[in-house]
Amino acid sequence: MDPTRQSDLTAPVEAFKVEPSRVIDLTISKQTQYYTLWAVYTAVQFAAGSYGSNQPLTMTAGLAVLVGVWMFNLGHLGFVLRCVEQLDKLGCALTAALNGEQAKYQTELGNAVGDMREGGFFWQFHKRQGQTRSYLLNTTVHLVIDTCASVALLTRVKWI
To answer: Where are the domains of the chain?
Structure first.
């Protein structure tokens, strides 16, 4: 391997610059993902609530749909909250850039990019440091919709 190439590979991360415009692009993409997650989720909930609406639904089938939908619900909530967390981190980086705080910008950007996993368990997101978007509001809205769709489904199978 070329010795000069080796030194390039071991250069500190600070040598690489990410322009704030690229962070804005990433933020817009993440916001689109966030809203898309909510749109798909809403479609699933309405579909679950009216599952097989033109045919009789047995208790077994209703409970199977209910369990499947709740597994989706809990996984989806983790995706939504991860998106919110990533938007918070990107927002902190952009705020630092707008304030001309280069060192803080690099740190915040590193925090945002260093943790771009796709999801997690919803309880892992409670009271994150620097959180500006509401964990409680996103979780409450999600669980209320989940409960309403579940009641609609269980009413159809005459369990409620």
So the answer is: 19-156
